[in-house]
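User: I'm writing a short report section on ligand binding and want a predicted complex to refer to. Could you take this sequence and 2-phosphoglycolic acid and write out the structure as tokens? A short remark afterwards would be nice.
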Amino acid sequence: MSQFRFINSSAASEVRIYRNSGDACKAAAELIVELVQKKNDARLGLATGSTPIPVYQELVRQHQAGSVAFSQVQTFNLDEYYPISPLSDQSYRWFMNHHLFKHINIPANQTHVLDGTVPASFADQHAVDFESWIHQAGGLDLQLLGIGRNGHIGFNEPFEASVESACNLPTRLVELHPVTRADAAPAFGGLENVPTHALTVGTRAILNARRILILAFGANKADAVKASLTGPPVSTVPASLLQMRADRVVWMLDEAAAAGLNS
Ligand code: PGA
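Assistant: Sure. The structure tokens for the complex follow:
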């Protein structure tokens, strides 16, 4: 693993580059285990997608080996499609149950995922409530993030705005970006089946997390990683906004995702 601070005009971000994604995921899991060992009621912000699956496998392995207990932990997931049933295997509630929650000793009412079944007229209020649950739990000790090819974090998609307002987005119902829907098409058996909307934790709660681990693997993430670290913080590359909290952020990359940082 090589580790350095990537310095551009606005921030010095910690970047760790691993030989492969497996090593990076083990290291991310280790940081989470260390946190929970130190603070057994840690508040974890969790992510879905293909990227963190090996992180969850490692957490399950360490739990089953007796190294870590989750009975006091609370988790808050980043996002969920809307509308979607939690019974659908494309839902993020299903994903989390399948990859993590059912394998560890966390009570169900401490695993919080935005609800894709709330009535449309209550979706906005549900998003507000969800962010208040995070707040009332004392905020997030750690937020795990992936990154979209378009630079999104959670479902905070690129848009035109000032950096200040882009960093202050609340948890809310959003329309999905075409790149995000295209990337989800295989999982839904075609673009026409991908929901047009989702609920997402906003940049405000993400950036308030006391530690942020952002994972990116593979050549198809290299452009987004490069733009996020080498360009200025801008609303059109949401992950670049992490530069505003660079002292809390660790980028955990494989060599392919980091390729654009050398050129
Ligand atoms: P992925 O998604 O892990 O499936 O690549 C990451 C993201 O869109 O945040």
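A remark for your report: The helical segments are 21-38, 53-64, 92-99, 120-136, 163-166, 178-188, 203-207, 222-230. DSSP finds eight helices and eleven strands in the chain.
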